[in-house]
Description:
The protein is of the alpha/beta class.
Amino acid sequence: MKNTQSNVEAKKFVAEQAARLVQDGMVAGIGTGSTMAFLIEALARRVREEGLKFVAVPTSFQSRVLCTKLGFTVVDMQDTAILDLAIDGADEVDPHLDLIKGGGASHAREKIVAAMATQFVVVVDESKVVERLGTTFPIPVEVLCSGLAYVDKSLREMAAEPALRMAVAKDGPVVTDNGQLVLDVRFPPPTDLRVADQRMHSIPGVIETGLFFDLATKVLVGGGSPGAPTLRTLTRKA
């Protein structure tokens, strides 16, 4: 069973290490999720204590609100095309540094930010490292509301099992920052997910998938036990 305290400590520790990568004058993409909240807090401490000056490009409304609250200089995604660095979490990471993202339903924006960045650094706790993508987490697929039925049908024809993501603290489905819906999709093993990703992108109504291939520069993995966090770095092989 996962130790919740250890998991939180690992997230906080790895986020603090990632915050050290942001340097004066950088334009940095800031991702979404619980680990990114720790990253933003760590960056705020550096701003206060070291006078760090950088420009934040958040991937979601949630991250933008927190960055703005803490006094960061914030630029919207649509107003920049190149980033020095992007830092984000992931729901799964495989040995090739390919990812599943989208637990926070921001994967379409997160993929744009990752693609814009010269360096894309992913921070996770050790529970997110898997041998094969799709092992523990479904693939989020953002879908145009008007295309929901057609996309669902098309995915089932690919032998996938899509499920409309439902909200927890409100009635009805999750609505993304783009005003669209999310299908959580599972494929039976041994489906080639690269091929499946290409096919999903060809379905009218699909906005973006949560499969991130060949984008991460390196992955920082937090682990250890309560009071003794550890860090390991995974880098992409040439």
